[in-house]
Design a protein that fits this description.
It holds the Pfam family Glyco_transf_9. The protein is of the alpha/beta class. It has 13 helices and 12 strands. It is 39% helix and 16% strand. It is globular, with a radius of gyration of 21 Å.
């Protein structure tokens, strides 16, 4: 298999966490096919995080350009034809992107995970899996072309300059706990006063608490609320880092606490333990991959209450709905997990 592919195209546009999972698969593919040219069609924001990744040509698809983005993609690939396309995203937009990528073989998800017309844009499928994590789904794509991903590892493309910025932002702080409080939707965020209570407990245990996140109004408002509610000192880095600099901040941290959000998975790529807070999605599918034992969740009980069945009896990845589910996660449970992880990982 090692010499059977000369050109491999990866299609995974978003989101940050999923792209982090895909990196492990892509780097396994590089190991199995060292002579193959690898091209990755990716979203604009996600490309910023992975820019400079060795051995990978990134082709950015900027969804904000609308139809022009599809035309640009077709122009980029005019006259080219890949040996294989690994179509790792079932969303309709990604399926339409796949149409613009010329390849002899287009491998997509199994029938159980195909939706939004995914089946129309592929001619081969990965094998069906039993209750896979998202990362394990990507690993099956790698396995399909002869690349085994037995133990995921990551080499994220950060530079000394990125670390220098991170170190300046963390100047004077030792034993750092990073709280990345915001998910993509507000309903998936834990309560600010509870984040504040966790920060106070961590400070009492000798940690310096740092908030991280992007510059959106939701994230800055949430951070301000946490700062106002906490009696402990907190360094607020929300909106102050690039994605690469955030990777470095997460690497310097001893521990990260986050809901279902990209920075949780970014921390995993840097080898930093993560406590994940989950209510709406199954953490066995989307939780921090190497630290699933550290999840505090109310997903399964809400799934049972809403659907009357356990996760194993429903379509894998079934989500639960509700604007106040995260409020069911008790501060005491998160603090207990914090103490457990500190005892196991850090002392």
């Amino acid at each position: 298999m090692a010499n059977s592919y000369q050109s491999i195209c990866i299609l995974r546009l978003s989101a940050i966490g999923d792209v982090c999972h895909a990196v492990a698969a892509v780097q396994a593919i590089q190991g199995a096919h060292p002579d193959a040219k690898i091209t990755w069609v990716i979203g604009k924001v996600e490309a910023m995080m992975l820019e400079g990744m060795p051995g990978v040509e990134f082709v950015v698809f900027d969804k904000r350009q609308g139809k022009a983005a599809f035309k640009a993609l077709s122009k980029t690939f005019k006259g080219r034809k890949f040996d294989v396309l690994l179509h790792m995203q079932v969303a309709l937009r990604a399926n339409l992107v796949a149409r613009c990528i010329p390849a002899k073989v287009k491998i997509g998800f199994d029938k159980g995970r195909s939706k939004e017309l995914h089946s129309l844009f592929i001619n081969q499928r990965i094998a069906k899996q039993s209750e896979p994590h998202v990362l394990e789904g990507f690993a099956e794509f790698a396995r399909t072309i002869g690349a085994e991903l037995k133990a995921p590892s990551w080499q994220m493309p950060v530079t000394e300059a990125d670390y220098q910025v991170a170190d300046e932002l963390l100047s004077g702080l030792e034993r750092v706990l990073v709280i990345a409080p915001a998910a993509s939707k507000a309903e998936r965020n834990w309560l600010p006063e509870r984040y504040a209570q966790l920060a106070e407990h961590a400070h009492q245990q000798g940690f310096n608490v740092v908030l991280s996140g992007g510059p959106t109004m939701m994230e800055t408002t949430l951070a301000d609320s946490i700062m106002a509610a906490s009696k402990a000192p907190i360094r607020n880095l929300v909106g102050k880092t690039s994605l690469k600099q955030l990777l470095c901040v997460l690497h310097r941290a001893k521990l990260v606490v986050a809901p279902d959000t990209g920075p949780a998975h970014m921390a995993v790529t840097m080898g930093t333990p993560v406590i994940g807070l989950y209510a709406h999605s199954n953490p066995k599918r989307t939780g921090p991959y190497l630290y699933q034992d550290y999840v505090v969740e109310v997903y399964h009980r809400n799934l049972k209450a809403q659907k009357g069945k356990a996760a194993s009896e429903l379509a894998w990845g079934t989500r639960v709905k509700g604007s106040d589910l995260m409020a069911q996660i008790a501060t005491s449970d998160v603090i207990a997990m914090f103490d457990k992880v500190v005892a196991k990982e850090l002392l």
